[in-house]
Each structure stands twice: as C-alpha cells, then as structure tokens.
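Table 4 source record.
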Amino acid sequence: MGVPRPGRGLLAPLALVLLLGGVCADELDDLIDSVEAVVNLIAEDASAAFAGRSEAAKACECSRHACGGEFDASDECHEELGDAELCGECTGQKLDFSQSFVLTSPATDTENMAADVKDSICTFRGLDETFASAKDQFGTRAWSYVATNNGVMRSWPGHAHERGDDVDAEEADERLGNCKKYDPRFRPWYTAASSGPKDVVLLVDTSESMLTPDAGEDGKLTTRWEVAKNAITSLLGTFSASDYINLVEFNAKAKALVPDKLLVGTEENIAMLREEVESVDPEGDPDFALGMELAFDLLIGAAEKFEEGEELSSSNCQKIILFITDGEDCTTRGTPCSRETPEGTTPVDAVVNFIEEKQQELEEAGSQRAHIFSFSFGHDADDEIPKEMACANEGVWGQILPDDDPLFRMHAYTSYLASQRGGAGVIWSRAYEDAFGLGNVITAARPIFSPQTSLGANGSFVGVVGHDIRLDDVQAVAPEFLSVIRRWILRGIQCIDTEFTGCELQLLRGEESQCPEILDDADCYYFEPADKYYTKNSDLLSFDDAEEACSSMGGSLADFDDPQERDIVSALASNAGSWIGLVFDEDAGEWRWRDGEVVSPNSTIWVFRSLRKESNEGKMCASMDRRGVQHNVHPEDCSLPSSSICEFSPSDIPKVCEDDKKLIRVDSNHEYKVRPLSTCRSVEESRLGVTAVSPAAESLTEEQTICPMGDPKTTFEARCCDDCQA
C-alpha cells in the first residue's frame, strides 16, 4: 500500500496566503473545516453502504433518473441554490430535497443495464438522509454527490439534467431523450481524488501514418488522428490544479507545446493546450526515442527545478507519460532515426534501453521513476514497442479502435493510481464551471474503497464522493479568492508512493495486457510445473541454425501447450523476439509445432496483425517477444537472424544446467517480480469477494432500479419554476 506524503516545497506560497489577514484566514479555516467535515461524513457513510450493498439490493427502491420527466417533489421551486441560467430573469429553480437523483454514463443503456450498474444505483440509495444532514457553513448552497467507477452518479438535491434542443447533437444521448451525456469519471474533481497530484506528459505521435483511416462497425471512416485528438482534448479536462502537465508532439522532430517546463493544470493552461492540439498537422515519419527524450527531459527539468526550490515547477508526486501512437517506429520501418541503433542491438532493444537510460537520469534528479501508459490506435497498429514500453516501466497498454470510447480505454491510468490511494484524505479540485448550472465552483472530494480482503489486502477503489462550493460564496468570505483557491488545493496535496505487489499490477492490466516475468540472468532455468529445463541463446541465428544449436545440446526449440508453459517461455523471450519451435507448413497451409500439433490462426498467441503477412515472403517461422504473455508470437522469415529458446527434458539436460549456482528454479518457492495471472487467483478471488456484484442485483429489473421516466420534458419545463415564462 502506498503511504501518503505531503508535497514538499509548497510552504512558501502557503505562507503568503496566511498573510492575507488573521480574521480572513480564521474564517477561511472554519469554512475549509466545515466543507471537509461534510465530505468525510458522506465518505464514511458511502463506504459503509458499499460494505452492506447486498442488503441494499434486496430492499432496493427505484431511483429518479435526472434525464427523466417525472420528478414529484422537484416540481417545487427553491432559491437555495440560486437561479438556473436558462430560466432568464426568473428566480429559483425546481429541486427535490427529499431524494437524490442518478445519472448513468453514456455507455449505459437504461433499458438493459448491467448488474453492476443496478448494484451501484441501489447501494447508495440510502444516502439521502446523510446528504440532507451534511451541511457546510453556507448551509445548502451546492451539490453533494457520490460517483462510482462504473459511471453511476447520485447527486443531491435532486435536479433535472439538461436535455433536448438545449444540447448539441454530438453531446446528446438519444436513448435518454437527447439528455446531455455526462460521465463523472472524467470530471476534474473525480480524477483529482482518484489519481492525486502528478506530473504528466502526453507524448503524441503526429507522424503521417496517424492520418490512416479506420472503419467503425457502421463502416464510417475516421482517421486515427481524429480519434486521438478527441481523446486528448477530453483528457486535458480531467486534470486538476494539483497536476503539472505538458504535451509533446513528435514525428521526425519533437516539440513541446510549451517549451522547457510543466504547466499547472489551471483552466487557462488547459484551454491553451487544447488550442495548440487543434493546430497540429500530422506529417513525416515517427521517431519514438526522439519523443521520449523530450518527454523525459521535461520531467527531469521539473524535478531539478523543484529540488532547487523553484515554485510551481512540479507536484513532486507521480510521474506519468501517456504515449499515444499507431505503433510504428523509425527503427522498425527502416526510415532515418535521430539515434543510430548500437551495433549488436536490435531496434526494439535500442528504444527500450534508451528509455531505461532516461529513467536513471530522472532518478538522479531526485525523482521517482515514470510510469508509461501506452495506447495503440487502429486495427493494424503495431503494438510491439508500445507494449514493451509499458511492461518495462510499470505501466499498462491498451488498444483503441474507432468505435471505442477512447477516454474510457485511457481510464486505466487513473484506475492504476487510484488503487493505491486508500489512505488519501480530502483533496480540492481546480476551479471549473459546474455542469449543472451553479457557475464556477471548486470541489472537495475524497476516494472511497471496498473493505479489506480476506487475505488482509487493502480494498479496491469504488468511487469518489464530492461536495461543491460556489466561488461567489468563497469571494464573500475572502475577496482574494484566487489566492484562497490555491491554498485549498495545496491543503489537499498528498503524494502516494506507489508500490504494487506482483499480482496487483497484473490484475490491473488484465488478461490481454499482462506482462511476462522478469527473470535474472542465468545459464539455465527449470520450470517445475512443466518439468522442463530451458536455456536462452542470445546469438543471432537463422531458425535452422538455432534449431541445430538446441539439438546439439540434446534439446529442441521451445514449445508449449498450456498457459503456464506459455508464461515461462514468454519470460525467457528477448524484446525483439526469439525463435520457438513453431513453423508454417506450406503444403498444408497450417502452423505446426515440431510434434505436428496444429496451432489455430485464432489462437491468442498471435500478435493482432501477425497473420496478415504476405505468403510470398519465403519460409515462415514463429518468433516470440516480450510484449506480453498473449498475442506475442509473430511470423518471421526463417532466414532472419534472431535469438532463440531451447527446452530439455530432465533426462537430457545439458551440462550448463547441472550447476545449481547457475540455475534458476521457477517453482513454489520462486519469488516473482511480475506474477503470471494464473498464480494470482487467490488474490483475485479475495478481491472479488469484497467487490463482487450483490447476488440480488443480478435479478433486479430495470423498473426496480430506475423509476418510470415519465413524459418527455424540455430543460425549461424540468428546471424552471412553474410561474416562469419562457
């Protein structure tokens, strides 16, 4: 479990704020304490509600959906939360102080909801009493809410969401009467609480290949750059003022959108970065190392400035590189690169090794290492280097296709950081415009987690509770509210030293993105479950020569017929790929192991685009690399030089395997650095035991969960008081 630690180097700006004046500071402290007390109370009751969700599902009563037209008590007019802008000069708006309303994510079909969504709606149905009793010193002047990791949001007091003609077509959800799409997981308050302070560089491939169009399920063509640009501009909106960010675009050149520094994640800086992204025109060839060099230099420079005492230079917390590409690099496509590949080094190794050099520079600057999250865009995206980058740098890889919600797929990085924030307290977001009409607000928020597992591990991230404060109210207490906002944000900064167990990280990656074990160098390896010995041959040989080398020692090129063997062979593979005992039978048109067993073209061993090679490329043999333990075998011309993996039965072990000092045993006593998911079942089951969907939720109907939506209403009819004239 990561341990919270306060951000250092922030006392100077905080001291300036304290000089605002004794009375003002005292009033502000009272206000901060009252708001944080509200958030802590809601978080405590929400955590208890999650622990008791099975009973809540059994007794579930339907909840009002904010996109509906039937609102009961919300037909009453209230002035506590001010006026709705669209109601013109009319005072007040329709609110329901007797119950909270729910919103569901754009991915949810309310007529066919998944059991986990129903469970989330029912679990927090009983928080209405808590919401009503939890008041800050302003009384009821803003929203309180809880949002879950599957996109369900419950907000109090109940209020209608924007819909119909008041919503742009691209933001309208047709399934909900053109109600405005809303996903709480990508709001500043949610990401601030779930991921905490961080330094982030978005590293974006802007080479010409990003203009490649991909077809969606409806046949519509969209370029990879359009999908990526949409994801980037939306992602920028999730950063808080405790984050430091920049964006690097690269092709044959690399350019930081703002040179030489990271920017505080303020509204103004984010708007500036969005404008810069809109002006980018993809062109040229990609050079991964060039882009990575500039991304790391920004992080290194920020760390050095922080150590020198420069204010507003770095969060001094998590370091993240979000790498967005369609996967091809100059080293693998044969185009000129800024750095020559060292002699005796494969192109893939050259990139991975260069990143490790930059990681060491970052550590020497007084920083922790950077986590790399890589995303491959498009059906034919080459995932080899992006996957290996993520595996080698404690990150996660994902593929994004035209019909995917890119933000949802990129959400892995916040889930990754959220999983270690169990000890985090209240954190304050940057100022932003409220999506529900309150104007400019700042939010106090806190993550909530499931109970500890049966194995004593910390619980999983469930969601975030929040409470808003309107900036107009803050200004009434302290006119110097811009300085005050900065103080609030500083108060919430808590850095987490992210330390994952081998299973925790693999469970976050999932089956398709899990990474292979990292084995120490040895002359020989024994894998107990298969009762086999293995050696790695780093000499670059053709397939036939590699097979002969294995045979001369009494063995053969490695094969596997179950997931456990696949895991160990993947761990022995080189970054660029190693020969294994799988060959294409040209006469039969099939891939076969040396014992004649056929491997289906639909097998999960093949990389996503591996079998699309032309058949006239000569004799084809199989090479396995370290991009994962699935989808990491690809065809290669058998004459190409490559490293290889040999296997031996216990009766034919070579001499190099007889010396125990030069042998690594992968058995029940082996201490994994990166555990295979197959060995994580007990951890996974114990975690599922405290996060699993309530049995009763499986049988709930949609009508039991969401109250009747009623007749359609315009936003004006749903929000504005009855005596208000349009």
